[in-house]
Amino acid sequence: MSTKTIKRNWKVNGVLTSATSAVLSDATGAYGIKRDDTDAVVVAAGTAMTESATGEYEYSFTEPAAGLSYTCWVTITYNESVYRFEHDIPAVTYGEVGATYTNLQEALGAYLGYWTQADGWTIATASQPADLDALINRFGLPRFYLPPRIRPAKTGHQWSFLRPLTTLTMVAGTSAYDLPAGFAGLERDFTFAAGQTVLYRPIKLVPEQLVRHRLSEYDGTSRPELCGIRPKTADYTVGTRYEIIFYPSPDDAYELEYRYRISPQSISDENPYPLGGQEHALTITEACLAAAESFVNDRGGPKDHKAMHESLFMQQLEASIAHDQDLSCPDTMGYNKDYSDSPGRFWIWHNGNNITTHNDIAY
């Protein structure tokens, strides 16, 4: 089987610095790396990472089977403070082609004259790797992830793959919980996961200060009804992170489901696959080539190709949006039956989940 390598750098004020410790472990100490398909532990919690150079940590493991994806948590301790970082390791289909980090580098290198199929990398300058990485991660991928508006749409398209469904397991008596590292906004309300003893109404998202106010009035526990999102205290070593607070504090270990917007991370040799899958490989490639096109023109390059890749990107973007809409749009919204045309008296069925309230009065 193949070998996967997890890498994590630790910087203080922008400088690589040795941490007190760097281990693989989630917050609960259940695992370091686990399989996404079965949740089986692949690497135990507390496994130490190797410091290959100052502030550069890595760990390699052998895959138990081909084509698996994994979730990994890196826990770094520095000056008695603990920092956790989630790594999603995608499944790799061997022989797969498309918009991988290496393929994007080669496409950009060929356009800029850095790389040829016959001779490989033909010009070696210190700036080339940085140029290519910037074109991919700072200009190309952001243009794809946050695409421009295509008429007649009023706003840019929101990709379905940037709004995953995930779960949160509550702890009785605990009102505040960390949200995922890439959290960029909540999509609708929190719902109680299926399989629980009672079917509850969704937990409504309200201003965070309202939740704090309610918690100050009542410090008991019950089934949560309201929630609010707030940024955590600024930490310039890991970027902005968010947490969610609930009112009332839960009286049980409820399992919740929610859909959220992702803030995509950069791709690299260690994390080579951009989000979106192979269906959008051409669109991603053209987004990066359009960035390289602008880069060449800004440096006084040939003007005869000024808008070629920009035009190709917009064409491919339309195709990608149409494909994404086909995947995420249902054929039907369900059967709409309100009994308004039924003769005589009719019964309104409900399970306690369809009741509308206003000022605490149920209608």
Write the layout of secondary structure elements.
Layout: E1 3-9, E2 11-12, E3 15-16, E4 21-24, E5 33-35, E6 41-43, E7 47-48, E8 50-53, E9 56-62, E10 70-78, E11 81-89, H1 101-112, E12 115-116, E13 120-121, H2 127-145, E14 165-169, E15 176-178, E16 183-192, E17 204-205, H3 208-217, E18 221-222, E19 226-231, E20 242-247, E21 249-250, E22 255-262, H4 281-298, H5 308-328, E23 357-358, E24 361-362
Parallel strand pairs: 17-19, 18-21
Antiparallel strand pairs: 1-9, 2-3, 4-7, 4-10, 5-6, 5-10, 8-9, 10-11, 12-13, 14-22, 15-20, 16-22, 19-20, 23-24
Helix pairs in contact: 1-2, 1-4, 2-4, 4-5
Task: Give the CA-CA distance, first to last residue.
Answer: 60 Å
Number of helices: 5
Poorly predicted tracts of residues: 343-353
What is the percentage of strand-forming residues? 25-35%
What is the number of E strands? 24
The biggest sheet amounts to:
6 strands, antiparallel
Taken together, the total number of domains comes to 3
- The helix-strand sequence is EEEEEEEEEEEHEEHEEEEHEEEEEHHEE
Overall SS class:
alpha+beta
What is the approximate shape? Answer: globular
Fraction of residues in helix: 10-25%
Radius of gyration: 25 Å
Integer average pLDDT = 83
